[in-house]
Specification:
Chain A is an all-alpha fold. Helices cover 76% and strands 0% of the residues of chain A. Chain A has two domains: 363 residues, ABC transporter involved in vitamin B12 uptake, BtuC; 71 residues. Chain B is globular. The chains are: A mainly alpha, B mainly alpha.
């Protein structure tokens, strides 16, 4: 792995970018950028598995990220007993009802031979079940949502460590991807793109408006963490000693004990933030390396060769006796599971779940830019894309500010155009993304690190 | 009397808004479908093209207003529309020359086109936000209501009012005019026929001497006109916000595919189908049943199929159902 030149490029770009930001801005910003880069890299690897390995175009990334985010709530938040006793039964009954509807549709679909009106009948059942479901669940939902509406108003979760939620998110996403894949994967590429985009829209709508489940637009804040809190660190003996040790040269220059203590306090506060982010970085790095390892293994295995064969020539692969439909469904589930994993990581890192922040531009198309820019079909490319794109995304606003300031230097402060441009600095990142994507597609259509096929 | 009341109720809350929203979707969907039929890709930048056109219209409207020019009872934006259309055509052709033409000559696969259109989507998104900002803008002026609910009640003596906004009438009339010209053009004129021929079979069209460059140019011109008109009508009726325009792309896509992608007439019907199901399925029919049911049998619940939160989700669900049962759309689109 170390001998791989792609790996070297990836690693050096990652280090250089982080160190540059650390030197010129601050280490806190550099680490939070690194963390988001790592999360983006996981997302990009998930999309890359679907698009790069199998040629499946999934524009529903946003939906799977939201499901991963929802998993953090379902796993880590303490349950709300009042809500459970008020409406838990109703929710369970309606859940059973939903399962019954799904099974009856499946049974009808399987047992009844092809009849002219079969599809219409199934359609009718589904349509009828929606108002029925609302009728069954409605009263309990309003009961749950009325309990402490300002602070809870939802069922809560299982009160487990949040790190479990990453896996739960992945499993949930795989299940949803199974359903979505069954419905959509038979479609042609552009229909698949549109329909997955719309499915992700439906998922977001559900997460946003089912307040008994996710608190919806009221957001969930103060989620658990897999790493220590800053406040605890600042009060713990060993951490203060550690900070003292690392800054001993700086501290020994100061003779006045009061000043020394105040400086130490200052240092402890700033470095506690950095330490927390560093812990996150370590965990994320482990995740990225693990996924990368398995993904590379899979890519170079007989299975990976089969996937590439299916991607490059579906008909030929079919003729060789490969079950294309099954493999497509499997890889769609696998990629979506990784995306869900990343979604849970993202929410864990943010410490809050805000369903209304999921927008296709940021959570679907940006991830796609990462994959396309980095290199489709190459895991290192996906990681590099995650880093580079997130770096540009974050740094384009300061960069635009600089350019505007230089180019409008001769205008006075109250100039209308200058003022307007300065206000619209945040939107230059979209411009950078668009131009970057167009340029890469034109001049390096295979991405910065193109796919390498090992022939053995 | 109760029967009349119930009819008026439905007209006011479902039929009139449905026709308005449907017209806007239909205009948008015809644009998407034309791009698909002639240029053979799903253009994800279409929503932002609509936003761009509307932005120009708004800027020109402001300019006209600052000069004291208005359109009397009608909104000034209608005066500004030609300028908006012109600039949108220029922008579309610019992107076609710089971006799409290269891939068309290379005969790239549809996915590459989608990806490039994503790039243009990002660029247009940024341009619109940098120039006019991300905020809600209301640029409707002129006479607001043709008929107010209260006036209607006084006039007819009914319990229910029927409000008719001038934007709704303008939308309907503009859509009728635009669509009639368009369908006349496509079905009756020689150029329109050559465009359809090109869409139907590129090679045969080339053999019979149709100039592909001319067809592509024409398509972009028509599409830009449709995008600007649809965007402006939507903005007049509701308000202009770049993010909403991006989101409207999704129901427009739904309408396009439901009607059969590549089929303009299908897209027209698809727009109305999506609009009416979105509005009809989220409307609470309690009051309606109160009028038509005999006394004592009035419903106690809202009689609403699904809550208004799921308005967008309905169009997506319809699309998915259509894709499963009739992948070519309800009105047979083309399979490329």
């Amino acid at each position: 792995m170390i001998k791989n030149s792609d790996f070297k490029i990836c690693f050096s770009v990652m280090t250089v970018l982080t160190i540059l930001v650390g030197l010129f801005q601050s280490w806190g910003i550099a680490l939070s950028m690194l963390n988001l880069c790592l999360i983006s890299a996981v997302m990009a690897m998930g999309v890359n598995i679907q698009w790069g390995f199998a040629g499946l175009i999934n524009f529903g990334v946003m939906g799977f990220l939201a499901i991963g985010g929802l998993a953090t709530i379902l796993v880590s938040v303490p349950p709300v007993p009042e809500a459970w006793s008020a409406g838990g039964l109703g929710i369970l009954i309606s859940g059973l009802f939903l399962v019954a509807v799904v099974f009856s549709v499946l049974i009808i679909n399987k047992k009844i031979p092809n009849h002219k009106y079969k599809n219409y009948f199934i359609f009718f059942i589904i349509i009828l079940s929606i108002p029925l479901l609302k009728f069954i669940a409605g009263p309990s939902i309003s009961k749950i949502e009325s309990i402490n509406a300002a602070t809870s108003g939802f069922l809560g979760g299982a009160n487990l460590p949040i790190i479990f939620s990453w896996f739960v998110g992945a499993i949930l996403c795989a299940l949803v991807a199974f359903v979505v894949g069954k419905v959509c994967l038979g479609l042609r590429s552009d229909y698949l793109a549109i329909s997955t985009l719309l499915v992700s829209g439906i998922i977001i709508t559900i997460v946003k408006h089912e307040e008994w489940l996710s608190r919806g637009v009221k957001n969930v804040i103060g989620l658990k963490r897999p790493v220590p809190y800053e406040v605890d660190l600042q009060n713990s003996e060993w951490f203060i000693k550690l900070v003292e040790f690392f800054n001993s040269s700086k501290l020994s220059n100061i003779l006045d004990p009061d000043e020394k203590i105040s400086l130490l306090n200052q240092l402890v506060i700033t470095s506690s933030g950095v330490f927390v982010k560093l812990c996150f970085s370590l965990i994320f790095l482990v995740v990225v390396i693990t996924i990368l390892y398995f993904s590379e293994k899979a890519l170079n295995s007989p299975w990976g060769r089969m996937m590439r064969a299916i991607r490059d020539n579906e008909e030929a692969a079919k003729a060789m006796g490969k079950n294309v439909v099954k493999q497509h469904l499997f890889i769609f589930m696998l990629g979506s599971a990784i995306i869900g994993f990343a979604g849970a990581m993202l929410v864990t890192y943010d410490g809050l779940f805000t369903p209304s922040s999921y927008q296709p531009l940021r959570y679907t198309f940006l991830i796609w830019v990462m994959v396309l820019l980095g290199g489709t079909g190459n895991n290192y490319g996906a990681i590099l894309g995650g880093f580079v794109v997130w770096f540009i995304w974050i740094q384009s606003a300061p960069f635009a500010l600089l350019v505007i300031n230089i180019s409008t230097n001769h205008l006075d402060e109250t100039n209308y155009i200058k003022d307007h441009l300065l206000n619209s600095v945040p939107y230059f990142r979209y411009l950078m993304m668009g131009l970057g994507l167009l340029l890469v597609m034109r001049y390096r259509p295979k991405g910065l690190l193109p796919e390498k096929i090992i022939k053995n | 009397m109760d029967f009349l009341n119930s009819i008026i109720l439905l007209t006011n809350f479902i039929i009139v808004p449905g026709i308005t929203y449907g017209s806007q979707l239909a205009l948008g969907a015809i644009g998407v479908t034309l791009i698909y039929g002639v240029l053979r890709f799903a253009n994800f930048a279409y929503g932002d093209l609509m936003a761009f056109g509307t932005m120009i219209v708004i800027l020109v409207t402001w300019f006209l207003q600052s000069k004291g020019i208005t359109f009397g009872l009608l909104p000034t934006a209608l005066l500004a529309l030609p300028v908006g259309i012109l600039l949108t055509i220029i922008v579309s052709l610019f992107f076609d020359k710089t971006v799409f033409e290269y891939y068309r000559n290379k005969k790239s696969d549809p996915v590459t086109f989608i990806v490039v259109s994503l790039g243009i989507m990002f660029v247009l998104n940024a341009v619109v936000r940098i120039i006019i900002g991300p905020n809600d803008i209301n640029f409707m002026d002129g006479h607001k209501f043709i008929m107010k609910a209260r006036e209607f009640k006084q006039m007819t003596g009914l319990n229910e009012g029927l409000a008719l906004k001038s934007t709704q009438v303008i939308t309907l009339i503009t859509t009728i005019i635009t669509c009639s010209i368009l369908f006349y053009f496509l079905n009756k004129t020689k150029t329109g026929k050559s465009m359809r021929a090109y869409s139907n079979n590129e090679d045969l069209a080339l053999l019979s001497g149709i100039d592909p460059k001319k067809i592509v140019l024409l398509t972009w011109i028509i599409v830009s006109i449709l995008a600007t008109v649809a965007g402006t009508l939507y903005g007049l009726d509701k308000s202009f916000k770049p993010f909403t325009y991006f989101n409207n792309l999704l129901p427009i896509f739904a309408a396009t595919i439901v009607g059969g992608i590549g089929n303009p007439l299908g897209a027209f019907y698809g727009g109305f189908l999506i609009a009416f199901s979105e509005i009809g399925l989220t409307y609470a029919y309690k009051k309606f049943f109160k009028y038509i049911m005999p006394e004592g049998l009035e419903p106690s619940t809202l009689i609403q199929f699904i809550s208004t939160d799921y308005k967008f989700a309905i169009s997506f669900a319809i699309l998915i159902v259509v894709l499963i049962f009739r992948p070519n759309g309800i009105f047979k689109g083309k399979v490329i």
